[in-house]
DNA sequence: AGCTGGAGCGC
DNA sequence: TCTACACAAGGCGCTCCAGCT
């Protein structure tokens, strides 16, 4: 089917303090009338920009304000006050009639806020936010403790929220717009001017008092509005960099759910749709929807069943190669290997393996996802066209994410298909497999130094990488003999490793790449200096093959830090 | 000294 | 046809720290 051309607006706005709340002071809409949801293009396109500014209740506009941005003919629509501004906003929205609204933190804040301001001024046309004419506003957070009314009001349009999408797709410390710009806007992009990209990457944060100050002169006001315009482009750049829209389309195609919900809600609902379709197709009655039996049942803190196994680490500094093996997609594989399903397995504790030979619906669906991904990967190998390659890559990612989220949803009490006995059975088999692998590897006269859930680390007692890989291949071959489709693979080899505790280690791999896991230096609750110095010291230790020499260098470095700190230079 | 609860990681 | 209700939401394992008895 031909993909439709859609209209997208990127929305950004600024507010200014007013009594106990904030008043809407300005907004920008960047409009693109040729947007394609599946496009993997990295350079955003737009047709025009529209900016409007109001004279806030507590402010005056600069005496020489002429409503112009200067330079490139960008006009600013100047309004008499907030209500006027809101009406202009609705008028524009009506004219543009966007299919997609893009912005940062729109779902949990932005849209709700705008709706709230419309309510304050009793703005009549509020339902123009969406595509259904409505009389009564949906109830808002202040009334019922929820912040989804703004989204609800945008019915008929997709809301693409860079914060929500980034939280799902990329691991970061903070998801505020400034951090997203730093980390998710590329250094360079052919087709975009470097200085513009640089400006987008380095966002200027406006605190409420800075916004007030910006109204002091035409120049500073123009700078404020320019930043607001840039925020629109920033969101476009971030969105295309994390590819949240094409990925959402893929996931929605895979699961058969609703696109707007892929963009706004959690993963359990997508899984539920996939399974409901699967049950229906097989003409099989799905299990009754899971309902929490008691309040404690769902809300009680703490684990409801046992999870993965963590092997006791043999602590220490290793300067031989440590071989790293792990099972490919352990939990999805276990579901297939043992035919674990609602239709095959008794819901009981302790759980027991199914006796039936008939393939369950859950393993069948996972198998389909895995096989489809294999097909896509095959295509990727032979594809030369960059656009098509990007599209295929998104597709395989969607398939992988969907397969991997199945187990999580089995254990999730709010899921339609919550089945904790099944989740418990999956993890029980996982523990059994890891333990058996450890015992088996030790029987090969090899030393297992650590392992977590699906991985195992073996001391190779060798400093020769090709020898180590040979050993790895041997272990892999032997372990894989035990299973029908479960598969262990070589993940790499650590040239040196400092193993401190469960889930805490530092290492350098065969290619010189550093890995720091769980240590204080990767935790944000430690000061920057402690993290940096810890890192420096670990590098000294790991890169220095001679332990004594490493320790000497560390002492030297710490002396230096102590002296510098004493002089208050740090 | 020992507990509990949470934050923030790893998988 | 109208009103009230509630809409959020992958899992567990392992330190480590603060706060308490």
TrEMBL record:
GO biological process: lagging strand elongation; leading strand elongation; mitotic DNA replication initiation
Keyword set, alphabetical order: DNA replication, DNA-binding, DNA-directed DNA polymerase, Nucleotidyltransferase, Transferase
Transmembrane segments: none
Entry annotated with the keyword Lipid biosynthesis: no
Keyword Signal carried by entry: no
Catalytic activity: DNA(n) + a 2'-deoxyribonucleoside 5'-triphosphate = DNA(n+1) + diphosphate
Family: Belongs to the DNA polymerase type-B family.
PANTHER family for this protein: DNA POLYMERASE ALPHA CATALYTIC SUBUNIT
Name under which the protein is recorded: DNA polymerase
Species name: Oikopleura dioica
């Amino acid at each position: 089917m031909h993909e439709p051309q859609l209209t997208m607006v990127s929305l950004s706005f600024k507010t200014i303090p007013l009594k106990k709340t904030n008043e809407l002071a300005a907004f920008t809409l960047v409009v693109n009338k040729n947007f394609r949801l599946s496009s993997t293009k990295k350079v955003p396109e737009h047709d025009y920009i529209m900016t409007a500014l109001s004279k806030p209740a507590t402010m005056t506009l600069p005496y020489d304000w002429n409503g112009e941005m200067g330079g490139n003919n960008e006009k600013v629509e100047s309004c008499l006050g907030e209500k006027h501004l809101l009406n202009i906003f609705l008028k524009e929205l009506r004219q543009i009639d966007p299919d997609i609204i893009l912005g940062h933190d729109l779902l949990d804040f932005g849209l709700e806020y705008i709706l709230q301001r419309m309510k304050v001024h009793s703005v009549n046309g509020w339902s123009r936010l969406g595509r259904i004419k409505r009389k009564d506003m949906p109830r808002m957070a202040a009334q019922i403790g929820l912040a989804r009314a703004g989204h609800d009001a945008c019915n008929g349009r997709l809301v693409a929220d860079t914060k929500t999408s980034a939280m799902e797709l990329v691991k970061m410390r903070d998801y505020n717009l400034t951090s997203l710009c730093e980390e998710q806007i590329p250094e360079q992009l052919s087709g975009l001017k470097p200085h513009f990209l640089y400006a987008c990457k380095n966002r200027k944060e406006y605190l409420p008092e800075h916004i007030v100050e910006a109204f002091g002169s035409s120049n500073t006001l123009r700078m404020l509005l320019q930043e607001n315009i840039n925020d629109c482009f920033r969101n476009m750049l971030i969105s295309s960099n994390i590819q949240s829209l094409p990925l959402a389309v893929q996931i929605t195609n895979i699961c058969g759910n609703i696109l707007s919900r892929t963009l706004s809600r959690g993963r359990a609902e997508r899984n539920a749709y996939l399974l409901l379709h699967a049950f229906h197709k097989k003409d099989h009655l799905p299990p009754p929807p899971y309902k929490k039996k008691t309040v404690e049942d769902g809300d009680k803190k703490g684990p409801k069943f046992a999870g993965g196994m963590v092997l006791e680490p043999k602590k220490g500094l290793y300067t031989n190669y440590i071989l790293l093996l792990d099972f490919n997609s352990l939990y999805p594989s276990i579901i297939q290997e043992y035919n674990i399903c609602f239709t095959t397995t008794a819901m009981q504790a302790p759980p027991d393996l199914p006796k039936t030979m008939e393939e369950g619906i859950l393993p069948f669906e996972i198998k389909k996802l895995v096989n489809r991904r294999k097909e896509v990967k095959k295509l990727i190998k032979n594809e030369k066209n960059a656009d098509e390659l990007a599209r295929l890559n998104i597709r395989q990612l969607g398939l992988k994410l969907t397969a991997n989220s199945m187990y999580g949803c089995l254990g999730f009490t709010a899921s339609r298909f919550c089945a904790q006995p099944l989740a418990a059975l999956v993890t029980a088999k996982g523990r059994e497999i890891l333990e058996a692998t450890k015992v088996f590897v030790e029987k090969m006269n090899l030393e297992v130094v650590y392992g977590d859930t699906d991985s195992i680390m073996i001391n190779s007692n060798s400093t020769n990488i090709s020898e180590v890989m040979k050993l790895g291949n041997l272990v892999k071959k032997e372990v894989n003999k035990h299973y029908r489709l479960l598969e262990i693979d070589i993940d790499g080899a650590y040239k040196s490793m400092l193993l401190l505790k469960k889930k805490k280690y530092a290492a350098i791999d065969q290619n010189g790449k550093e890995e720091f896991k769980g240590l204080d230096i990767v935790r944000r609750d430690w000061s920057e200096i402690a993290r940096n110095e810890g890192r420096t010291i670990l590098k000294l230790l790991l890169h220095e093959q001679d332990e004594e020499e490493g320790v000497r260098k560390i002492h030297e470095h710490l002396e230096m830090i102590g002296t510098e700190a004493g002089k208050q230079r740090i």
